[in-house]
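Sample pair:
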Amino acid sequence: VDFSPSFALKTVINAGLSVYNTLVLLGFDAKLKWPNDVLINGKKVCGCFYIPQRRMQRMLLVSSLPRWLPP
């Protein structure tokens, strides 16, 4: 498994873009603040980051959406 900084950066950027694209497809007026932060109505609704876990040969990618996000 590649844990290089460039791989981590690409992974986090792709995760942020995936959340952004999904929200736009669902009809939300989403914006990107940074490649890993997604905003709706000026509020941060998602932040993606990663936690390398080299001993276990895996990478944990974390992303969350708020409970107030309307259906």
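The chain has one helix and four strands.
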